Amino acid sequence: MTTSETLHQGPNLKLSPEHEMIRQAARDFAQNEIAPVAAEFDESGAFPVETIQKMGEMGFMGIEVPEEFGGAGLDTMSYVLALEEISRADAAHGTIMSVNNSLFCYGILRFGTQAQKEKFLKPVASGEAVGAYSLTEPMSGSDAATMRSRATREGDVYMLNGRKSWVSSAPKADFILVFLMTDPDAGHKGITAFLTEPGEPGFSLGKPEPKLGIRASATSEILYENYRCPVENRLGDEGEGFKIAMAVLDAGRIGIAAQALGIAVAAYEASVEYAGEREAFGRKIGQFQGISFKLADMKTRIEASRLLIYQAALAKQRAKDSDERYTLEASMAKLFASETSMFCAHCAVQIHAGMGYSKELPVERYFRDAKITEIYEGTSEIQRMVIARHELGLR
Ligand code: CAA
């Protein structure tokens, strides 16, 4: 187990030796194994099976899950450090890792029964299987409580029917945590969570989502047509689904913030290098104020994002498995880091100019990948709403 107390050190923030080691291991792996293939997978849109398998072997697919359930038994700081490094090499790998760790494993770890942990958590946390999470529907995104999919209890099973969209990792998933209405008249209190298996009858994949970025992370619609879900695969009680979905998203948003930071850092590092090499009008372009001020703003926003992410990670760690919420910290980290990511990727393209627009360099990929971090797991508008409601005492 690592300690993260050492991080509360003000401006001279220093990682503990254990956290440094985890970051270095993730960095070495990401730079040696992922970075060289990132462009190829972005181009083809194929799911990077081999590197994801290796990430499982390294413990990156269930970082915070105790070893008895197949995970690495580390803390949230370890998770955000590793996820930043993986995403710095390739954001699509970051998405797959984040969904597996936060949206699937965390939900079962926190709300699952012992039997559910054995059956669903162990294989996914150890990286032998892939997990996914499905809340969104074609007509229900930000206003998640308005979903139309239905689950009706018939004896020992629930009959699941409905269409879900934008499900990250769905085409490769062995298990999907899905949310459906069991009592449509009860609004958000009528939503229930289920652990489903795509191999079972009644499940099918819908259209693949054609995406601007994170193209190597497979995303599609999914359909349930009289899918029989045994009662023992219900996660939590009937009607508890919305709160489970939201609590899981609190964890997920910290992951997306770390992913966004990784993209921002990659865009920044490429820009510093280019600004120190490229010449115009007899000078390195970094010597022009128009470029150097961009670099200064990128660096400052990156470090501010990092602090918000570490704050959120520590808040989640303090909450452990209790009902204590870290919603505010998670939303602030996600909001600021994702907008930083887009800002840095935008600056990076501008600094590289023609080369930033070219597929010969990864900068245009950072630009395409950064955008999703302002959208999924709650848009920037939703994060602002959550933060404002908290501050106004309206939650
Ligand atoms: N933790 C625990 N409970 C929570 C909670 C949280 N973070 N947030 C809300 N709740 C509870 C509230 O306390 C309330 O409980 P009571 O009924 O007991 O009072 C209940 O849930 C309803 O809360 P609200 O009234 O605030 O609900 P709302 O309908 O106004 O919605 C919202 C709130 C924040 C806008 C929410 O709908 C939301 O987060 N929307 C965005 C959804 C989202 O992020 N979707 C992305 C899906 S995943 C994805 O992106 C794809 C992928 O695969 C990566």
Can you give keywords for this protein?
395 residues, alpha+beta, four-stranded mixed sheet, four-stranded antiparallel sheet
Verbal overview:
With 395 residues, the chain is of the alpha+beta class. 51% of the residues lie in helices and 15% in strands. The strands form three sheets. Strands 1-4-5-8 form a four-stranded mixed sheet. It is globular. It starts with 16 loop residues before the first helix and ends with a helix. The chain binds acetoacetyl-coenzyme A (CAA). Acetoacetyl-coenzyme A is lined by residues 99, 133, 135-136, 142, 144-145, 166-168, 188, 242-243, 246-247, 249-250, 325, 327, 376-378, 382, 385-386.
Strand order, largest beta sheet: 1-4-5-8
β content, as a range? 5-15%
Largest sheet: 4 strands, mixed
Residue windows where pLDDT falls under 50 for at least 5 positions: 1-11
* Number of E-type strands: 10
Shape: globular
Radius of gyration: 21 Å
The proportion of residues forming helix, as a percent range, comes to 40-55%
Structural class: alpha+beta
Mean pLDDT: 96
**What molecules are bound to this protein?**
acetoacetyl-coenzyme A
Terminal Cα separation, in Å?
A: 34 Å
Short description:
The protein is of the alpha+beta class. The protein is built from ten helices and ten strands.
Give the topology:
Elements: H1 17-44, H2 49-57, H3 76-89, H4 91-111, H5 114-125, E1 131-134, E2 150-154, E3 157-168, E4 175-181, E5 191-196, E6 203-208, E7 219-230, E8 234-235, H6 241-277, E9 279-280, E10 283-284, H7 289-319, H8 327-352, H9 363-372, H10 380-391
Parallel strand pairs: 1-4
Antiparallel strand pairs: 2-3, 3-7, 4-5, 5-8, 6-7, 9-10
Helix pairs in contact: 1-3, 3-4, 3-6, 4-5, 4-6, 6-7, 6-8, 6-9, 7-8, 8-9, 8-10
Bound molecules: acetoacetyl-coenzyme A.
